[in-house]
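Input.
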Amino acid sequence: MFDLSEELTVERWWTDADMDEVTQMLASRRSRLWQLADPADLAAWVFADPAPAPLDPAPADLDADWANGLNEAGRQAWAFAGWVARTVVPEPARTAGSHWLLSRLDGAAPAMLRLTVGVLEILGLYENGESVWLRLHGGPVALAMESGAADPAEWARRGVDLSDDGTKTLADEKMMLRCPDLATARWLLRQQPVIAGLRLLSCWVAAGPYSFEGRYRPEIVARAWRASGALCDEDVGAAVGDHVGFDRPYVGVTATGGLPARRSFDADAYRAGMIEHDRLCRALLERLAQTGVRAGSGLCGLPVDLAWRNPDGRQFVAEVKSVAGGNEVEQLRLGLGQVLEYRHRLAALGQPVTAVLVTSQCTDPTWWEICAGSGVQLWTGLGFDESGLLVAQPSGNALRIDFEHERSAG
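Output.
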């Protein structure tokens, strides 16, 4: 079994200024990638814990016979390659074949798997698991070493070789890590700064109109994708925050500096929406904390806005939607669809949840009926019962503390 159940390294080795710098760095690129993901969102993802993208949807049809002819070492090598792709490539399901590919070189013995993102190969490993190399941006690792969150002596003890990388792209800022075996590489990728370095380099080099036609083989990606699901997902789900009910601490993201130009894109409205979204999240986090409940972001690799367990152990996930400028119906429809998707995917992973949709406002009372009919709780405010516990369904005439009223009264 591919074991990812070791405790994560979660020391806060970076600052908000570092995230702002990464946001500016990514926003300076002109890329088709920004039609799929915002630079500020990706900057937050760079520093988040190493949770993989959901197994479904896959970038290609999953191959049920992916393991035919492979021994256990080969299975783990394919699983590792798929897990790395799902963990460090931005929007991996939607960008396969246009921004990244996985290839298998079978001209040598043993065969080699290589992950290419944009113009760079960022992962190479032998199918027998005897040697693994990783190419990453050196900034996060340097920050972690300066703060003591990463121990170069421990890396050396485990046989990890760290050297500068001389390829032209970001020539002064990349490093190469070489591991003597797959077990060491698995240990190394439990280190959050290593994941951050891989993600940062991937975001940078994926920001270009690269075409892999003629090289992209969807069946190779599908096999690694399937391998990572069969061997990793159960362990990943157990490793990331089951004891607290979320994958990682909440990190608010606001739009800073220039935003990429887009057709019909209102930058001021976008900034206002992000600020309001962050305010709603922090208000909910604060109210939950008043009852002794810790909340964070993500659950089992899914990008839920907020997740937590109540004092009885009941698991909640919330999709948070800011409402402004006449977009109430659009936001409610979008938020309901998202939280229904998350609930379905988590149920498929054996994680039942109570789904919540949190909005700035809801002027149409029919929406409480719509959400209730779908088994989703709609919160436009947060209520508490007489014992101080969170009211699970603040609707109708139940106690509701309106965010807008709270802001104006505060």
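The longest strand covers residues 120-126.
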